[in-house]
Amino acid sequence: MDALTHVLAVSAVNPVPARSQMGSSLGFHIILACFGIAFAAVTMVAEWIGIRRGDAAALLLARRWSKVMAVLVAVGAVSGTVLSYEMGLLWPGLMGRFGAAIGFPFSLEGIFFFLEAIFVGVYLYGWNRLSPWAHWWSGMPIVVSGILGAMSVVAANAWMNSPAGYTLSGGKLTSVDPVSVYFNASMPYETAHMILAAYMVTGFLVAGVYAVGLLRGRRDRYHRLGFAIPFTIAGICAPLQVMMGDIIARFIASNQPVKFAAMEYVTTTSRNVPEWLGGIFINGKVYFGAAIPSFNSILVGFSPHTKVIGWDSVPASLRPPLVSLIHLSFDLMVGIGFFLFALAAWQGWWWWFHRRLLLTPWFLVPCAVSGVAAVAAMEAGWIVTEVGRQPWIVYRVLLVSQAVTSSGGVPVTLGVMLVLYAILTVVSIGVPMVMSRRWRRGAPAEEEAEQVPYGPPVRP
Amino acid sequence: MSPSPEAIAVAAILIVVIAAYALFGGADFGGGIWDLVAGSAERGAAPRELIDESITPVWEANHVWLVFILVLTWTAFPPAFAAIMTALFVPLSLSALGIVLRGAGFAFRHTAERLHMQQLTGALFAAASLITPFFMGTVVGAIATGQVPVHPAGNVLADWTSPTAILTGFLFVAACAYISAVFLVLEARQRGHRDLTRYFSLRATAAGVVTGALAGGTFAELSASAPYVYHRLTGIALPLVAISIAAGIAVLGMLWLRWYHAVFLRATAAIAVATVVWGWGLAQYPYLFPTSLPLVTGSAPTAALVSEFVVAGLAVLLVAPGFALLYFLQQRRMLTAAETDADLRRAAQLEQARPSQPAAAPASTETRITAALVLALIAIRAIRDVFSPSRRR
Prior knowledge:
The structure holds two protein chains of two kinds. By secondary structure, chain A is mainly alpha-helical. Chain A has helices at about 1-10, 15-55, 55-90, 90-125, 130-160, 180, 185-215, 220-255, 255-265, 295-300, 325-355, 360-390, 400-405, 410-440, 445-450; strands spanning about 165-170, 170-175, 275, 280, 285, 290, 390-395, 400. Chain A has a two-stranded antiparallel ribbon. A two-stranded antiparallel sheet of chain A has the order 3-6. Chain B has a two-stranded antiparallel ribbon. In chain B, a hairpin with a 3-residue loop joins strand 1 and strand 2 (about 295). Residues about 340-365 and about 390-393 of chain B have low confidence and may be disordered. The chains are: A mainly alpha, B mainly alpha. At the A-B interface, helix 3, helix 4, strand 2, helix 14 and helix 15 of A face helix 3, helix 4, helix 5, helix 14 and helix 15 of B.
């Protein structure tokens, strides 16, 4: 406890603007990152079907998706560069002390980012001259480096939840074990959760677009495939994600009990802890929530007598703020997870017994919003893990207030960033919409004139 | 106490990466600068098109160089990284802003359909190309003059607004314009544009002279503001400075003689820029911040430094062949924009096959040419409209 009281004695700069800036730029980037991780795989499945079965509709889908991918990956590259700036600009106290430790996963991520950029260029502009299978294989490095890059960067985040692989003496980092840093205790859980989430977000978002098309009566093979391919990929991930989430919650209960307590409204360490569904926590009481008696204890240890650690285990200053936000975000994520699982199971059931796609409006309407729901679930999940770790930036090692910059300009950069990213969001959604409108008009000249920011320009 | 060999090696890797960014990124920014000053629509259309053609394949990779610089610095020299990021918060934020605007402008420029969107994205791209290198230059100037405190209490305005830092900012802009113009001379020549070759040759010469003058000015300024670096630059790093000057003069000579050799001209110009970066690195040795933060106290534990060798090795092993493949395919013209997918659409039964389908093939070429003309006209209008207010002034 001596170290803690010492830590608490350090005078603090208000970290809220810096936290908000980091949170919003991460929240923006993560959606584009999902496309960087998973869109290539979705596109390649379509291309595989196209080549293997000589299916022109599938090939057309793959070609169009690769164009959208180029724009999204480019915006993601820019917002990712900003994030690496922000690691230093906002958190010099973290980077100065532990930059050497978390630098290794970030460096690896840089390599995979490089590879991804190179092969996106080859894949996007190799459609005409490369042989079909050579072109298909040129997409493979994008899929692999997308997964490995996500693993590396999430490993750095996991390290902040389970710091390992370093020795401090006198407050200074004296030795580092990069392998232990990378493979820290939280790393397998967080990386698997995030990669599955990326495939679900991408899959459900793309499927949602074609669900809208199907609802509007465009029921040709092009639209049915455009719905079925991404929906199948995301649908396979959905049950895995629900299982993964259950395992991770149990891991957090033992690894970061205070975060778990905030997620589940566990005020005091006790047995027979109820599971709260919804509800707002005000002054020690939960309002508007439904409690299932002892169910939380059962979920944590498979027995109603399991002891669950509450947030009374640490002094008030070391508990996360905004517990209601954490709990409701957690509930939202779990709820959406089950909703998406149900959608996938519904389609799976129908396919199993009827061997054809279920395309009734009752099914397609929820599918149309499934992508937005998946994004909401992912953002909620990041709120749970990031806000739940507060006030620590490195769990039980370094406080956010010790890491935050002493520069006074953060509120200004926060304002500028919010405006810029709002514009970028509108444009990132708008450009694919404009593209699809052009495609629907079916004007080949327009299609020809379209360029995307990778590879050489059009030469007629 | 002298720094460990690992620390020296990682510092050397960092300097090499910075030099690579100065070359590739610099050429990239310089393209934007020439786009900005290309003038009226009639005069500016051709150079703008050439710039656009030559930047498009590389701009993405340049972001990665920058990301590597940031990550290498924080991994290998965490205290220096934290101090720089705190004290130079303002110019670094501004350069990040430039990167966002530039990337966004570039990403959407080609897909923007309506005129005012094209104007906006084009202007963003060009203006950001000026902002970003300038503020990066002030950051380097502040570091070289030893103005960055080891434990800054907040952002320090005076650090990067000293005459040396501001001069370095201008030097960066000029150097970007210079290296880019030299590369564009060769790009124009490769494509057989005689007038554009002359056009950029003239600009490369002018930018070369300005860069030389600014470098001389910065050098003179350093004698007062950074005595340690100045002493080293005129001492141990003198050969590098001499090579840079000689290469710079050689480039001017080649341009004057119109000896546009694809390899020699490019290499000489690259040497002129890279040796300055290396000279700066050597002149700072053994300090991260001359003379307050030596390498010994500013570098990470040995294992972290070694991990960066692994990363550098992986980069050579994985990224280099990737790049080789990309350039190989590009040189062989294997990477082309995709063709119209009208036939794919027909095959997918999205459209009824037209009765005159065999005749459709030659017609598509015509439509293509018409579309290209229409787009070129729109582009010319857009560029003229963007730049006309500054012309009227």
